[in-house]
Amino acid sequence: MRELGIGLIGTGFMGRAHALAFHNAKAVFDLPLNLTLAALADADPQRARQCAQSWGFETAHSDWQRLIDDPKVQLVAITTPNHLHFPMAMAALAAGKPVYCEKPLAVSLEQAEQMRQAAKAAGVVTRVGYNYQHNPMIQRAREMIQRGELGQIISFQGEFSEDFMADPASPWSWRCEATHAGGALADLGSHLLAMARHLLGDVEAVCADSQTVHLQRPASVGNAEQRAIAVDDQVHGLLRFANGARGTVSSSWLKHGYKNHLSFEISGTLGTLAFDQERLNELRLCRAGQPGFQRLLAGPDLPGYAAFSPAAGHQLGYNELKTLEVQELVMTLAGEGGSGTDFDEAWEVERLAAAIRVAAREERWVKVSEQ
Amino acid sequence: MRELGIGLIGTGFMGRAHALAFHNAKAVFDLPLNLTLAALADADPQRARQCAQSWGFETAHSDWQRLIDDPKVQLVAITTPNHLHFPMAMAALAAGKPVYCEKPLAVSLEQAEQMRQAAKAAGVVTRVGYNYQHNPMIQRAREMIQRGELGQIISFQGEFSEDFMADPASPWSWRCEATHAGGALADLGSHLLAMARHLLGDVEAVCADSQTVHLQRPASVGNAEQRAIAVDDQVHGLLRFANGARGTVSSSWLKHGYKNHLSFEISGTLGTLAFDQERLNELRLCRAGQPGFQRLLAGPDLPGYAAFSPAAGHQLGYNELKTLEVQELVMTLAGEGGSGTDFDEAWEVERLAAAIRVAAREERWVKVSEQ
Amino acid sequence: MRELGIGLIGTGFMGRAHALAFHNAKAVFDLPLNLTLAALADADPQRARQCAQSWGFETAHSDWQRLIDDPKVQLVAITTPNHLHFPMAMAALAAGKPVYCEKPLAVSLEQAEQMRQAAKAAGVVTRVGYNYQHNPMIQRAREMIQRGELGQIISFQGEFSEDFMADPASPWSWRCEATHAGGALADLGSHLLAMARHLLGDVEAVCADSQTVHLQRPASVGNAEQRAIAVDDQVHGLLRFANGARGTVSSSWLKHGYKNHLSFEISGTLGTLAFDQERLNELRLCRAGQPGFQRLLAGPDLPGYAAFSPAAGHQLGYNELKTLEVQELVMTLAGEGGSGTDFDEAWEVERLAAAIRVAAREERWVKVSEQ
Amino acid sequence: MRELGIGLIGTGFMGRAHALAFHNAKAVFDLPLNLTLAALADADPQRARQCAQSWGFETAHSDWQRLIDDPKVQLVAITTPNHLHFPMAMAALAAGKPVYCEKPLAVSLEQAEQMRQAAKAAGVVTRVGYNYQHNPMIQRAREMIQRGELGQIISFQGEFSEDFMADPASPWSWRCEATHAGGALADLGSHLLAMARHLLGDVEAVCADSQTVHLQRPASVGNAEQRAIAVDDQVHGLLRFANGARGTVSSSWLKHGYKNHLSFEISGTLGTLAFDQERLNELRLCRAGQPGFQRLLAGPDLPGYAAFSPAAGHQLGYNELKTLEVQELVMTLAGEGGSGTDFDEAWEVERLAAAIRVAAREERWVKVSEQ
């Protein structure tokens, strides 16, 4: 079996999530490639060494370019802060190596455009970490839609809200800077837009409204110094899909009570489907002719679930979605994929978000193709 | 105690609902006026007589103008088809009598404008039957908002969807004619717009999208003849409230699984509040600092509830909202009201709906004051 | 159409509920008898007169025996405190008049036994106010069971819990006296036992455990004087039904958070059915072969619902269950009934409760037929 | 840091779950011992080798005794069929090695008794895989109870039901044999009993009822040959806890619609707490004085959660409960534990189940200490 040497850049929470996902994908799936944890990079050499040992990587680098150049590395995984995605991914593509980059693809649409062009030119597999799409329940929803089980899709109502910035005393962070892809739309809403596209395809036009509610925040926890905030706290929009469906999207990080409320309802001529990521192992479904909604619990009949549990109702967790993402990537690298989000698709998500920003700023309907 | 003679026009489902509501309001509340069921009118003299006897009215008329002229009638209640609201209400106002008209106020904004002017000129109490607002849970929600318990309101997401037209074989009816105030926006959405205004006040601008999904329907059940349909099956919109809140509205009569899904979530800087009329005795609330949503069940601490039941959790039904509506009307007639929807407010609802139609047709943001 | 003169004893909350139910039943149903509100009795003559006028009764009595003797009264409705049910019902039966008595039938099994014998001897229709059974959703559940839609019934798990006595400072009341049919089992649990019998039929044997948690309570609100409490605060039991099903019952008035939690789950070889009276317009159902539970919302397809609303999802309230109870009674009086609870069935409920008390006291399985 | 060599016996679903849990515990926690995957045993030498390589074990054995004797093995983990737990655990204890055995401890109370005596004699750490207890939400529930946040606990109502045997065509398996710890009580109910003890402590007396509904099943899927079934399909019982609380337990593998319905409600004088394992990241809680239940979503404030995710609402899955179980075991081995289930506690669970069986058979209350 062919080897696939993993080179992972970044040792934060998401770096560890990748390390676990690579390991667990190997253990729970019969993968067509033999994954090896070849190299780990962190700017801090000591941390790089420590994490490499603890997570099972063979080599540690403090210079990420050396990881990319390492001949044992056949896949470059990027989990660093958002503004570093661009240089790292471009370097990996220049080296002709497949790239697995955390979301968002980039911190500007211009960067994203260069990245997708570079990926096209390199001709390698790319992936961006929109791991929520790998939830087996989401895959089932997508299948239902594609098979026509819901009939013609006429409406999508989506929301991704949390409350981690609801307290005006929650301090400034990089998430409050547009140049780091901050704001509710970029941070949360992009997951929702990616999901909308994953389920229903292209969006043709948008109209939107967005607001900054708390115009300043403490520079750090308890700090008397206030920093001005320019990014959006909430956004509401209208979408027109190429398939004729219409809908709404909302995203807020100020909505008390919500912790992971990526939710949607999809209305079709043959049924309604609803999902809320705060209960990620469930779908609510009402087919035409049925008296009411039924609750579906994830089980081994779903794609991917059986690898983790032989019995329904034994819920998958957030981290296992990452393992499923790695599996899809490996299958694709082996020529057997896949519906994962590549750079081209991630650019589409960025372009859609950009169109929403323009629509909000100019208070008009905007064609996505204008961007 | 002063007498209040009720004159009721119409003997359909809504006519009976009014008759019951007048009786029950008298029995459950200590009203400041002595209600008497003075006269009932229906174009069919036999039905008028029959219903008058069965529902306890003193007189029956087949000519509604005679009911209006009847000196025993001090309040004219109108429950006839939508296109008759205008002539009947105008006649009652011309006679200087208070009017209690079912929603919608009229079948065009022009009619609505004349009606509110006539009401203003007549200087009498008017009410329009947006009975969902009289739900004690809604009154509690409104109080919470007005007292600032949710802080500054920043977002409203509302929906009113049902599925009674979801089957393309559901036949044409007057609800499919714009000239009878048909379509999902007028039939269902107007309740939602009225609710949004009841809770958050004026809307300044709107943007919207609407669709007719099923372009023809059978002329009647099982009829091979098809009629062309021009009214909207679904609408989605963005709202900007005068108080600074932003939001979305959606309405559909094609959404499988929903029967009475007038729902909203209101996000404020101090909490989130959610309601779904399919569970009309419940609110979900999360205040700032609380770990999650709590469910509130209607109980005798709510305005109006105690008249019906001394114990919490013994749910009120749809018909009791009508009884509460009558109570508010009677209190207002006695000079002790009231937050009910008068012709002026009902015109505002119609104007808002008209703005949404323009916004959808012209694909642009529309100021409500343009209408 | 034959007249049915109603004589109502008692003017408390339940008296008014009866008065409304008689009126509304007449308005919403095509009844085979012509109901007239003949007479109202209350020991206080002024209150009797006042309520008679306000509720529309022709005559007022301060002596309930005179109401029973009133030739215009053809049905005696009893809504007085529990210990008065016995003398009033016995007098009405002695006069050969049908009786509609609030639950519980009596304050001792001995009284109940005399009452059912007297009813049998009188040969008149009797009814006891277990109005929760008249919920159309419950009628649907019963039909499903009787038609075999759930297959062989194998398990019943029932609970009726509220929290109105959860605070140890909630004062003593007649509900705390066994001689007034007090205690959680008698006050709440009897509804659950009646429901279990209504749905699944006879219970053959029981085992149970009961407790008084708060052994004394203030004599009245804020009173420093404490009274000893002997009745049960909670009870748990096992049931063996004659049809082979087994199950559990629980009842408590100390359970924080519950307001009207009469709930059950019924498991059959072909499906599971669940109900919670805090959402009285809903059932949860999973049939064999279905992937999960579906929610059924009450609608006009249910027996009784359509009289109140032509559309699904427009919930019935607690008071309308009373109207439905009156309808069943009137139909039965006209010879067209009915599955209502008569004195014989109410005695069965009392006997079952008595068996549970013995089982708890003697710590053993008890055959219901022992009582 | 001291090494801890893991020896794992069994390569089925549960063997893999252990392998993953050991790996992931090392990656997500700062453990005080250095875990090494020393040896894996399976009777099939080829499978042993294959799994060892794929899961990262250093050595493979086809004879489990050799694994126990392997000096590199300092902890013996047993994931084989139930009837093998006894000989393997006894051998490991004889070798003076800590044991981590899957539930149930044994297939008879006699075996369980020998095992706990052997553990006591050996003086080593033992653990049994009741992993549901390691759910951070359950740990939070336990803390709340122990800190008195719910006041005096007065009631426990527990259920563990699934539907995997609901179809009478579901074939015979070892789960249908009492000698393999089969039946709904042993297979599912033991989890519930362990949970009840984990949360509320000792049970003093029980009364119960159990039934075999389907008296025969196909020998295998689609097989015309039927085998007689003697184990219980469902059980209902009453519990008396040593702390004074009373309650009910139910377990069934015939209950349509349930997949993992280990649920409980605990009523205390200061609050009610509810849990359903089909939503394992949630608790419902109503404290005295609060108007209704609130939903708590798991988050990093809970013990153990933060190791997996820094944000609330990013649910843990079933497999992560196993990782948490391993963490507790390792902490205990390092002298820093722990509330895990050791052989003594697992024997208590078995004794409680045995008491329930006697109570059902002899139709009487049974003191647990009789067993």
UniProtKB/TrEMBL annotation, chains A, B, C, D:
GO MF entries: nucleotide binding; oxidoreductase activity
Signal peptide from the UniProt entry: none
Pfam families listed in its UniProt record: GFO_IDH_MocA (PF01408), GFO_IDH_MocA_C3 (PF22725)
Domain GFO/IDH/MocA-like oxidoreductase stretches: 138-273
Keywords (A to Z) from UniProt: Oxidoreductase
Superkingdom assignment: Bacteria
Domain called Gfo/Idh/MocA-like oxidoreductase N-terminal: residue spans: 5-130
Keyword Oxidoreductase found: yes
PANTHER family tied to this protein: BCDNA.GH03377 (PTHR43818:SF11)
Protein name: 1-carboxy-3-chloro-3,4-dihydroxycyclo hexa-1,5-diene dehydrogenase
Species assigned in the record: Pseudomonas thivervalensis
